[in-house]
Specification:
Helix content: 40-55%
Number of helices: 6
CATH topology of one domain: 60s Ribosomal Protein L30, Chain: A
CATH class of one domain: Alpha Beta
Structural class: alpha+beta
Distance between the termini: 128 Å
Strand order of the largest sheet: 1-4-2-3
C-alpha cells in the first residue's frame, strides 16, 4: 500500500514537472482570447454592409463678383477748374464769432460726405473764412477753427483724414464784398476746394 502511495506521489510529481516544463517551453504566452463576432448586417445584402460611407457633398464656394467700375460721369470727367467753378461740395456757414457747427452746417457736411465717398480719389482743402469784423490775427485763428471743425465732422462720417487739408484765410477772401449782415452771413464759412482727383 505504501508502495502504491509512493508511486502515485511520484506520478503526481512527474506530472507537475511535466506541466512546468510545458509552461516554460511555451514562453509564458497567454492562451488566445476569443473576440466577439461583429453583429450581422441589419438588412439587405452583405455587399451593402461592407461598402465604405459615401464622401461628403462638396461645399459650394461663394461667388465673388467684383464691383462694377465707376462709370465716367459729368463730374468725374470734369477738370479741377470746372469742378471748383460748379462744385458739388457746398460751403458750411457759421454763426458770428463761432466755430460750432449748426444743424444746417452738419446737414451740408453730411451731403458733402456722400459726394466724397462717391469719388474716393479726391483730395479736398477746407478753407476757413470769416467776415470783416475783428483783427486779421483773430480772424485767421477763427477761420482755422472753422476749417478744423468741418474736417473733424467729415472724418466722423467716414472720410479719410488724409484726404482733407485745412487752411485759414480769415477775412481776406469774402464771398460777398458788402459791409452788412447779409454779406457777413455769407462770408462766415468753411469752403471746399477740390485739389486733386
Amino acid at each position: 500500500m505504501m508502495r502504491m502511495q509512493r508511486t502515485s506521489t511520484t506520478a503526481a510529481m512527474a506530472l507537475l514537472i511535466l506541466l512546468t516544463v510545458i509552461a516554460t517551453a511555451c514562453g509564458g504566452k497567454k492562451p488566445p482570447v476569443a473576440r466577439p463576432a461583429p453583429p450581422p448586417p441589419a438588412s439587405g445584402s452583405s455587399a451593402t454592409a461592407t461598402r465604405p460611407p459615401a464622401p461628403p457633398e462638396p461645399v459650394a464656394e461663394p461667388v465673388i463678383v467684383p464691383p462694377e467700375p465707376v462709370r465716367e460721369d459729368r463730374i468725374a470727367s470734369s477738370s479741377l477748374d470746372d469742378l471748383n467753378r460748379n462744385s458739388p461740395l457746398k460751403p458750411a456757414f457759421f454763426e458770428y464769432d463761432s466755430s460750432d457747427l449748426s444743424a444746417e452746417a452738419q446737414r451740408v457736411l453730411t451731403e458733402n460726405a456722400v459726394v466724397l465717398k462717391q469719388y474716393p480719389s479726391w483730395t479736398v482743402t477746407i478753407e476757413g473764412h470769416c467776415d470783416e469784423r475783428g483783427t486779421a490775427e483773430y480772424n485767421l485763428a477763427l477761420g482755422e477753427r472753422r476749417a478744423v471743425a468741418a474736417r473733424t465732422y467729415l472724418v466722423s462720417l467716414g472720410i479719410s483724414a488724409d484726404r482733407l487739408r485745412t487752411v485759414s484765410y480769415g477775412k481776406e477772401f469774402p464771398f460777398d464784398p458788402g459791409h452788412d449782415e447779409s454779406a457777413y452771413t455769407k462770408n462766415r464759412r468753411a469752403h471746399f476746394v477740390i485739389t486733386a482727383k
